[in-house]
Specification:
Two copies of one chain form a homodimer.
Chain A lengths: L23 H22 L4 H12 L3 E2 H7 L4 H13 L3 E5 L7 E5 L1 H22 L6 H16 L18
Antiparallel strand pairs in A: 1-3, 2-3
Helix pairs in contact in A: 2-5
Chain A binds a DNA duplex (30 and 30 nucleotides) through α4.
DNA sequence: CGCAAGAATATGAATTCGCATGTTTCTGCC
DNA sequence: GGCAGAAACATGCGAATTCATATTCTTGCG
């Protein structure tokens, strides 16, 4: 969903006895959506859509990445990223340049204004993150990040959690 | 992105010194995407799309929810949820019935086959979750879930983290 | 009662997204 | 050198998603 929060009462799931309220993947998605939607309001205020911000952030970290690389990093599908880069190029935030060594590759560079806006939003993102972390218990955020990296790592480069190790519905028979 | 993982080498972000690799919202999105994409493969194998699975799961927890409620819970925007329910109704997984007390409301109920498929997938989801948790340190998963609920709670019913408490870029001047 | 306001859904047009595929450019090997 | 095969992007198109708005029904109140 990931859009402007409607700020209603907000149904609380997590305290119920149902499955969903305690399901890891649900909690991940819910927390991610909620927190991101909040920041995306600020991104929109700057005239960007969420995916554009992600790209800007990734390029701020490392300028001149190739499209495929950038797509993986920014969690955007390749053909889609190509289209977003188009728009951003029109807006004057980035520019393409094909790699001299390997002309199949297209590298994406920030323009000056892209770099500026990126830096500004990264700073805002940092502040936003601090405002969240400040409301957690000391050390909780660090543990959280570690756990998230851990989960993410499980699926990188492996093609997912080894299926062989998974139980089947019949296992506990 | 949230689709079928391409099982490539997978660029590792988290070890880099950049901003993104340590940014909480990024880690949340990345972990959520990666883990969910894995399970969604199984959902697809059952002929469902990801959003349909979420709805099925929510209804399995509590049948007969109203559309708005269900939308919030399943993290799907309302008008979109309406359309998905349409399709699911065609597939014979759910059926609508307008609330007798308040005829503006439409309640969504599982059909028998919907309940069956839901139960099956919930079981698969539990197994999938176990396969993840098993690869974490003892207790890590519990801490993770608590932290996620915590974050989610920050944005429920409040209209987001109190902006007044947030720093501005100038604060640390 | 009769109405203004608001709540709950549905609908339609406009975007965004993702999959399949085409094109161009490398690479390894014969 | 010349080719088969893979890699990296771009494109086309259909499906998914969103935003704004219409519709239907309820509620509180003058």
């Amino acid at each position: 969903m990931n859009t402007i929060a409607k700020k209603q009462e907000g149904v609380d799931v997590s305290d119920s006895k149902g499955f969903v309220g305690g399901y890891l993947l649900y909690l991940l998605a819910a927390a991610s959506d909620a927190a991101s939607a909040d920041f995306h309001a600020r991104v929109r205020a700057r005239g960007l859509k969420a995916p554009e911000w992600r790209i800007l952030a990734c390029l701020s970290d490392e300028d001149g990445q190739m499209v495929t690389q950038l797509a993986q990093l920014s969690l955007i599908e390749q053909s889609h990223l190509t289209k977003i880069v188009d728009q951003m190029a029109v807006k004057g935030l980035v520019k393409r340049r094909s790699d001299a060594r390997d002309r199949r590759r297209v590298r994406v560079y920030l323009t000056d204004s892209g770099r500026l806006l990126g830096a500004e939003l990264v700073e805002a993102a940092r502040a936003h993150e601090r405002s969240i972390v400040r409301q957690m218990r000391p050390g909780e955020a660090a543990l959280l990040k570690e756990a998230l990296k851990h989960i993410h790592a499980l699926y990188r480069a492996g093609g997912g959690v080894p299926v062989a190790l998974e139980e089947t519905e019949e296992t506990s028979r």
